[in-house]
Amino acid sequence: MMKKVTALCLLLTLTASLCGGCAGSVATSSGTSAESTGTSTTQSSPGSEQKTTAGGIIKLGAVLPLSGASAESGIACQQGLELAVAEINQNGGIEMNGDTYQLKLYCEDDGGSPDQSVSVATKLIEMDEVSVVYSSCLSSCALAIMDICDQYPDVLFTTIECTSDNFSTIIAQNTERYVNFYKPYYNSSDYGAAFGELIADLSEKGVIDFTNKTVAYIVEDTDAGRSCVKACEAALEKFCGGSTTVAAEVVTQGSTDFYSQINKFKALNPDVVMTFFVPLNSGVAYTKQVDEIGSDWVDIAFVYPLKAGFVEQTGAACEGLFWLPMQVDFWNNEECAAFADKVYEMFPNAGLNAMHLSSYLGVYMVSDAITQAGTNNARDGLAKTYGAMDYQTINGRYVFKEDHTAIASPEHLVISAAQVQNGEYKVVWPANFAYAEPVAQK
Amino acid sequence: MQNIYKLILLRKKQIAFVSAAAALLTLIAMPFVVTKIYYIHVLILCMMFSCITSAWNLIAGYAGVFSFGFQALFGTGAYVSALLSIHFGWSPWITMWMGAAAAMAVGALVAIPSLKLKELPYICIATLCMGEIIRLIASNFPELTRGELGLSQIPKLFQDNIKVKSYYLMLVILVVTLMIVVKIVHSPMGMSLKAMRDSQEASESLGINIAGTKIRIYMVGAFIAGFTGAFYAHYMNILTPTSVLGTALMTQYVAMCLIGGIGTIAGPILGSFTITASLELLRKLEDYRLIIYALLIIVTIIFLRDGIWGTFKSLIIARAEKHQNRNIKKETIV
Amino acid sequence: MLKVDSVNAFYGDVQTLFDVSMEIRENEIVTILGSNGAGKTTLIKTICNLLPIRSGSIYYKEERIDKVPPYKRVDLGMSLVPEGRRLFPDMSVMDNLLLGAYSLRDKKQIQENLEWVISLFPWLGERSKQSAGTLSGGEQQMCAIARGLMIRPQLVIFDEPSLGLAPVIVDQIFETLSKITRENNSTILLIEQNAQTALEISDRGYVLENGHVVLEGSSDMLLGSPEIQKSYLGL
Amino acid sequence: MNLSYWIEMIMSGVVTGTCYAMIGAGLSLIWGTLKMVNLAHGEYYMLGSYFLWTLLTVGNMPLIPAIIISIVGVVIFAAAVHFAAIRPLLRKPGWNMSPWILTLGLQILLQNLALKIWGELYRNVPYFWNTVFKPWNMFTMSGQRIIILTSTAVIIIALMTVIKKTRLGRAIIATSQDGEYAMMMGINIKQIYFITYTISAGLAAVAGILLCPVYSVNPWMGATVQTKGLVVCILGGLGNIEGAIIAGILMGIVESIAVSAIGSEWRDAIAYIFLLGVLYMKPSGLFGKKKGV
Known about the structure:
The complex is a heterotetramer. By secondary structure, chain A is of the alpha/beta class. Chain A is built from 13 helices and 15 strands. Chain A has 2 domains: 50-161 and 334-399, Response regulator (Rossmann fold, 3-Layer(aba) Sandwich), CATH 3.40.50.2300; 188-326 and 415-429, Response regulator (Rossmann fold, 3-Layer(aba) Sandwich). A 7-stranded mixed β-sheet of chain A has the order 8-7-9-10-11-14-15, sandwiched between helices. Chain A has a 6-stranded mixed β-sheet with strand order 2-3-1-4-5-6, sandwiched between helices. Chain A has a two-stranded antiparallel sheet with strand order 12-13. Chain C is of the alpha/beta class. Chain C has 2 domains: 1-77 and 155-173 and 187-235, P-loop containing nucleotide triphosphate hydrolases (Rossmann fold); 87-153, no CATH class.
């Protein structure tokens, strides 16, 4: 009896203290927005505690899947953002209207679920008073957040590596509603196009045999996965004069048992098998299992080979694998390699992948935009400036189309394909970027 | 001290009523007190979960049908309402009812076969499977439901001042739900439900039509869940199969119900508020958040096996009765 | 042998035993009479500590056992033949018997006891492979008794052995009971409704009514007493 | 669609099935005696894999000791959990859900602890025996899968003999059938609870260890397997261990047929429909007793 009483009291006090503590910390966090760095001169009057100039500190918020099946991507993004913010602050922060401001980053976990991401975005804006929201690296979450962006016209929303086409279509329908929402990345349809061209090119070169024009797909059950199949079919229609899809297998994200699918394909005997996974484990499992059972088709992989440790975990099994997009070349592009070193310096056991760079660049783009616009308020011109930017980075050039999506093209963000040759990634396509010749698989 | 206990015993109903009224008033006052919209949002979520959990509690805690597929009904309500309002452009205010009705139908479909199953785990897993099947259907017809990408741009219920208005709507839904629950629990049906829960055979011998009662209860629960789901759809304006049909939701409402105290009326609500609120407030702990959350659950259930409210209630009542007995003894002695 | 001293027991908040006291001496057969709900089964549960007692005490061979966990009873040489022939239905007769001897580790002794038990109920021998659930009522009861005897207990508690059995089998069973006492000189506590047969074989008896011991004495005395005749023998 | 195709398909089904079987058997065992569903069971599977990965890569231990240590580790952990958390909750009679919700909390806890300790990256364990056989050039069989099949078979047979033939086994069955009178037979059922819980945790760990080279290791790997495990132990008839094992393998085959016949996206749906169909015809599962345990 007494035990229960004490336990009850204990629990209640605990919850109470939690509420109290958090309420308190909320107060302090809004307090910090008033504190000013020495350089800021006139701004820090009590009136200027609004988002416009947070007196010496500019707050960035990020909604990321830090737990759950997509935690790998989410944490990668978080590390990229943190790296960039730390760097900028070390170099004295960012310049706005002659004052320099420190950046402050708030990362929140949405567990990869869209409804949570909305709550979290609201929290970031309402409680932490951030002026920029990095709205997730998952298309579904970003779309959810996109839906509330018109309620907060003062805030700039920008995604990290979301590839769904739906952003473009939705924004195109109603540009002024989504005036403060941007997607600095290309669409999965662009992936598809690249896939089609690659196939055409390779079969022309005689590297792969695409005479039957039969393709089988294994994609994960995400928007990116499913829409990629359609995109690829369309592209093959365009560049190879059509193709027959012998099988389109949709597996749950992170699933690792492909024996049945591979066996099925062996009976169907396609020319090419396209696999699209974001989590590394699916990719590794597929590659190992194909190698184990043995196949006579050409494997073309999407996304997963770039995840850290792919080659190590698959070993010889991944030799000759074609894959795209080679979003970042951490191996033969010095600047990108240098960036990789920076990441490992700050996060020794990081799982380096393209997300690190995209989020890192994301911070720089925003801070430049703020400097140019002279404000950190989306309505007062930050959004406009950000949208109009032509941003040259170590990994291509970011220019937004009128649908607020970055352009994918050899001049802008190039979608290049690589092949694993003697355990190393070599860019083999498109020709003007390739520094290695594609060789026949197996 | 004794007088207090005596009071509690004699005035049980009145006390309950007064405290309920007080709670209601505070909830009504909230939007005027709380300025941050975020808090309103959290409160809406709390109330929403209270509805689902109470509905589930009605089925599991009273009827003893531990359905682990209950999220499917919530999801059905949400999806049906959303799809109707998107594709036919009907007003959400109408489609919400349709969603609820659909959920009710599904509820019946789920309930009828699972009645053949006597044992708890069989019911749990069978219903879980049904729920999962519905989820898979939702995610495997992207043409209709846009699959895992989710339905977005769902018509809103309100055009301006959304949060506060939704808050009051949700409050109304919650109050109605509770009224229904209380009514059922205190009805003869409710009594028979308790009998049923405590022993199948006994109630069979009591001549209670188990199947009929269960189905009716299940459909009531389904309706509540469906309506709440529909509200959710038009409030959040985004639906994905995993978020409204997934097992994660199931784990949440089960946890809430048992933490609060299953088989009680206030328990589920208490649980929903505690867990939802703490999940949001724990954000300060960043990546330790879910660990602490899990620990909270574990500690609560170890020390308060009947849940917060369950234990509290039994404590007070037990105490009071003991005092009463003592008094009676005294009187007899004197 | 066994001494129950002013025991009070509760099911939840309901008191089911009120200051029950009784004593069973060596090599006695003692019957506890009582109608349904008189608290007979509760009494057994308390003796076996399947239902912890609120107050009072229980002694077995002068040592207090009301705090000793149930599974230790067997080591003390006390064994229970449950009411309603609760065998383990999905196990073979043999496995049931072996479970009876669970507490014994000495293979040889188990074998001996097994033979002895089979000598009591010869049919158990040839049907040892049959699963216990498929036995007839009487057979199940005998199997349960056999299981209870597998440790050659000093004290056996029989909970309504005659419940729902044909008179012929009842007599058969009670015969075996008295036989056991003779052969194994063990003590028997017999819970019964069937007063006549029970009292005939037993030395003394107690009468329980809604949780109180209302009458106790030698079997003949009880058989003679008008209350018994009225309420149990239907004379 | 020649013979080798079918053999190949059945084989892949069986390999997946063994995993389900191990998890299902464990869950079934726990239900039989403790009368609770252990919702943290998948996490023991996860822990098994992680322990092995840690010992192999971080501790660079030789394989065999690493495997043994990781199994022991999981068993010890499960024992600790049992004493600390589950035993205190087992007293309450009647419809008692508190152990369920406890294990639910445990599941969340372990997943996020794993995320904290081992990080978000997907870990990979090399094949124990990295060769490929082509019996009669009919189908391919990697060394790993052979190891999986043989060791599972051995373990299952061992488990069954223990349960069927030994004193302990009798005690376990007795406890699962009638705890109260099992006690009166002199069986310390608390001890039996403890033993069964740890044994089943061990089974889960073994499954995790055998399969982690084929599938890779991450904090969330337990959840899906566990759902399948639950489905399987219901399908086999709750509390019936052979049932669970057979059902597990059956389920694996059904799934792989579903994939080749219909398509991956409906794989799980087919599995669930299969269960529901069986339950509809036989409400106590394939091998369950009429009234259930």
